[in-house]
Amino acid sequence: MNNPTIYIIGKIKNNPNYQEDFAKAEERLTKIFGEKARIINPALFQYDDDLMGIYEDHIQKLKEHLEQRFDLTINPHEEYKYMDLSMFLISSAVDYIYVLPNSNESKGAFVETILADKYDKKYIFEVNITEKSLETALTSMRIAKETTKEKVGIYMLPNWNLAVLWESIYPKDTHPIAILTDEDKMYEEYLANPEEFIKSIKENGWLVWGDEISFYLVVQSNSNIVLSK
Question: Is the distance from CB of 2 to CB of 91 less than 8 angstroms?
């Protein structure tokens, strides 16, 4: 897609590193899609004085109208403003939702995914893997190809772990998503120079497109995520 609009979601509350998490995601997305892509980083909303001023004027008018209309006392929650802005943007302007790994620890991110599903938005999931996991998967793939002579690939399982599968053991019922197969040009690049290939993936990440769900693999030296057996 040319010049997509991408909204980043992840854990902000009780996350002392949220600014860094979101900034790194924004940097990765800009590297992938170029400077013309519209990357929305909600971690920066609070520092946009113009945006916050416009929103405060809007919510004050809405508050006054509803209090008069229904004889209520309304006390808007401080966190609601950010969720309100998020819901407005996701429902009306966003093409993709970029999901940070810690999103499953955030109630706000959960609500954002419900809204994204309602409006048929597509996802890019950031998945952290270890360099060793990647090296093991690539080596296992090469050995499997040499021994089975079947179509072989590295797949992302529903639990987001990597697995090396070939046609005769491919679990169709779990619908794993292909990360790399022996028919891809990238596999030829790996065979030609394994060390340079892994170095490039580690530096630049690895974006894998799916019809509805895509993955951006971030290779790290240390991680709790291991290769699935």
Answer: no
